[in-house]
Design goal:
The structure holds 2 protein chains of 2 kinds.
Chain A (H helix, E strand, L loop, with lengths): L37 H30 L5 H33 L4
Helix pairs in contact in A: 1-2
Chain B lengths: L3 H25 L15 E7 L6 E8 L5 E4 L11 E4 L4 H33 L5
Antiparallel strand pairs in B: 1-2, 3-4
Helix pairs in contact in B: 1-2
Classes of the chains: A mainly alpha, B alpha+beta.
């Protein structure tokens, strides 16, 4: 297949390689940056911050619209569209992450 | 910027809004007379410029029309000079109406781009949901 879909830059940290099991059959230490899930948490926190920034811009413009200080009507509606789609994206990433976590928790020994 | 199409279309919306403002100004002053020893109302034309690094488009500035306008013989006009002449702006009605339609349609087209881009991004979020 010639076409390669480019990765979404920095959206989700890629899964790093898992160390092979040791000869005795026990799993060795899993190597990689996200052994405690802190990377997912920080990525999510960054996304939430981003959403919050966009929403505050949208709120500011909505306030300007009702006070009559707004020059461009589309600036307000664009900011609200941008913040809503970004919020949807952050929510989707969170849901997928929780889904994956739940899937692992359901695994039988 | 991950939501670039929205930003690019937004810059075009601003340009078309300014164009609409310029046409509104020109049409509102199309019958504004002035004395012959003064400049006529000068039509305003928006200069659009393609954005470099950030893509999109922006207004580089405005150009003013002819200050001479057209001299009309109207002896009853309060601003008429000793020969009975006043100065009217040299604005073409049909040209302004054409520009009005183009500004409106351009604005609508870019608003449609924003909507379509948002729909597209929402479709992307649905990938692999089920």
């Amino acid at each position: 297949m010639p076409a390669v879909v480019p990765p979404l830059a920095g959206a989700i940290p890629s899964v790093t390689s898992v160390a092979p099991t040791t000869a005795s059959g026990y799993a060795g230490t899993v190597e990689g940056p996200s052994t405690d899930g802190s990377q997912f948490a920080s990525t999510l926190a960054g996304a939430v911050d981003n959403v919050q920034g966009l929403q505050s811009t949208s709120n500011e413009l909505a306030l300007q619209a009702v006070t009559g200080d707004l020059t461009d009507i589309h600036a307000a509606t664009l900011a609200s569209a941008r913040s809503s789609i970004t919020l949807e994206m952050a929510a989707t990433f969170r849901n997928r992450g929780v889904e994956a976590f739940n899937e692992i928790m359901r695994m039988q020994a | 910027m991950p939501l670039d199409a929205i930003g690019i279309a937004g810059s075009a919306l601003t340009v078309h809004r300014k164009w609409l403002d310029a046409v509104a100004d020109n049409l509102s002053n199309i019958n504004t007379a002035s004395a012959t020893n003064e400049d006529a109302f000068r039509a305003r034309y928006v200069l659009a410029q393609a954005g470099g690094e950030d893509n999109g488009v922006y207004v580089a500035g405005t150009e003013l029309g002819d200050a001479a306008g057209r001299v009309v013989h109207e002896p009853d006009h309060p601003l008429a000079d000793e020969n009975g002449n006043v100065r009217y702006p040299d604005i073409d009605y049909s040209e302004q109406m054409g520009a009005l339609i183009m500004a409106q349609r351009g604005y609508q087209a870019n608003a449609a781009v924003v909507d379509r881009a948002k729909e597209t991004y929402q479709a992307a979020l649905q990938i692999g949901r089920n």
